[in-house]
Amino acid sequence: MKQNSTTYSEIYEGEMCVAGETIYDSTYWYGETGYKIERTHKLSLDKPTITISIPTTMLNLTQDDCDYIAAEDHILRELKKYFDELNDGIANRNRPDKENGKYYIYSPGGEVIKRNCVYFKEVERRYYSLSDGDRMPEMCVNIMIQVQFPYKKIKKTIQMLTRDLPEAVEWFILEFEVEKLREAVELNRKQEEIREWLRHSDYCAFVADGAILPRKGNSPLPADHAVPFASPERDRIEICGLTGMGVRKGVTVITGGGYSGKSTLLDAISAGIYNHIGGDGREFVVTDDTAVKISAEDGRSVRNVNLSPFIKWLPNDGDVTHFRTDHASGSTSQAANIIEAAGFGAHLFLIDEDRSATNFMIRDDMMKTLIRREPITPFTDRVRQLHGEAGISTVLVVGGSGEYLSVADTVIMMDEFRALNVTEQAKQIYRAAKHIDVGDAAHGVPLDSNAPSGESWFAERRLSTEKFTSYPKESEDAYSGTERLEISDMGFIIIGDEKIDIRNLHNFISFAQITAVGYMLRYLAISCKDTIRDVRQMVDELYDEIGAKGLDFIHSTFFNCGRWLDMPRKCELSAVIFRMRFIDFL
Predict the structure, then answer these.
(1) Contact between 310 and 376 (Cβ < 8 Å)
(2) Residue 221 gets which letter from DSSP?
(3) How far is 31 from 54, CA to CA, in rounded Å?
(4) CB-CB contact of 80 with 514 (8 Å)
(5) CA distance linking residue 148 with residue 137, whole number of Å
(6) What is the pLDDT of residues 394-406, one digit of tens each?
(7) What is the pLDDT of residues 85-134, one digit of tens each?
(8) Which of 562, 565, 521 is nearest to 44 (CA)?
């Protein structure tokens, strides 16, 4: 390599002579381990992406071990320790990474999910000698990293690539403990057993006794000296040899004073849509994996959504069954979020009153008496019908509205992070406040709250693909010849002319998930051939293709977006599509 190289073309395109034949291949071998070096982006030639392929036999893995995402996840976390040590050895706080050099490996949170940076796949073997004869492709674990080359320091670059990197990988292989991997897989299996049990039970979530729910600051780590969770006696169930609080399907209210732990419990239930690693503290907090956090979202775009279950009429004879606006209010946005999530298969809503529109959540008797002409049907009047008619349960954090005590099947009160079942006490308080005799309504629930609403909770969403594009407009009638895709860490996905605000989509767990959604949108936009597409069918087909080809196939080096991708749920991708302003929904 030339001392002042800025293109590093020799690394990407260098000639190799094998048995007298000149070949071009950017995969290099250190013993049995392959290192495939690829350009990350045309503007990042000094920061290549390197995929390390380690034969599973070198880690003593069986075929059965390779069938689990938890095994991939464990290998990534174990290998990361060796790269952290490499970076400690070359770190210099007085110099930026571009001068220092650095190894980048993805740093996951506590969730166990599918990622593009680690996967099992058969790899074609190439040796620089024909004496071994032809070799069949071999099952490898493939780990994607990036390396920042130190600016104009060729000797250090060579050392990083040809000595330090392969030596760290060799030490990882030598010290790898396959039993720890199998322990991680077994933990994941048990979580899946609980999840499967929930699907066929009367429960939508499980919080194990002894779980550590609070987090340490903004980190994914469990808080020090936190109070272990203990389930109320009345709600304690046993699943797969574990005891804990079972959250029944229906309506559950979590209440308590300020800083009592009620939002912490809701956040833990929300996190339970994914499995977690050992030591996370929430390993056995398991939730219906269709659960969606619902909040108000002032200013969001809403396109052709039937809001009639919550909005009876609009000023100027607006059509509530085909509601559309570029700037939704708190109440209409929250209503739209519920209808859209229901249509995409959510069976559980998680709602915190602090993130909700007050006039959507509740309207007490005095306001009902004062305001006779009110278009909004509050959520209190629909939450039980939502369960009875649509099969969707709700868990709400409520600290200031006693009206929800009347519609709750279960009331959990948090007191200094201790959970207490106060359902009967809450019903008595409500009946006394409303002067209701016990015989007037079953369990203290208003007589009409379970009456059929006759509302349509589900709707097919189809979009016109004419303006669903990653090419911005140059003029009224012409699109640019260059695609645009940007993922902002401020909470926006920019594709074509769209700037999609995702700051109030609370179910994203990582920036890598948001990046994946950006690439998914781009792939859908360029691959749409029909003029009209059913959104659910379109998303299902994309996920089938990812299942067959791997998550990384949606990535493109044309865009200077993040390289790491975490698999999002279908509902997150759909929620982003529904927030696009320039496409039409039919």
Answers:
(1) yes
(2) S
(3) 10
(4) no
(5) 30
(6) 999 998 888 899 8
(7) 999 999 888 899 999 999 999 999 999 999 999 999 999 876 544 445 55
(8) 562
Provide the domain limits for residue 484: 462-578
Same-domain check for residues 481 and 435 = no
Centre a 10 Å sphere on the Cβ of residue 171 and count the other Cβ atoms it contains: 12
The per-residue pLDDT for 444 is 42
| Helix H or strand E segment including 534 | strand 532-534
Q: C-alpha dihedral over 504, 266, 246, 309, to 10 degrees? A: -40
Cα angle value 283/289/294 (rounded, 5°): 110
In whole angstroms, what is the distance from residue 195 CA to residue 183 CA? 19
- For residue 15, give both structure tokens: 């000639």
In this structure, the answer to whether residues 95 and 14 fall within a common structural domain is yes
Q: Which residue has the tokens 């605000």?
A: 501
Query: Both 494 and 433 in a single domain?
Result: no
Find residue 371's DSSP bridge partners: none
The answer to whether the CB of 197 falls within 8 A of the CB of 210 is no
Per-residue HEC secondary structure of 457-509 comes to: CCCCCEEEHHHCCCCCECCCCCECCCCCEEEECCCEEEECCEEEECCCCCCCC
Write the single-letter amino acid at 374: E
| pLDDT mean across residues, the chain | 91
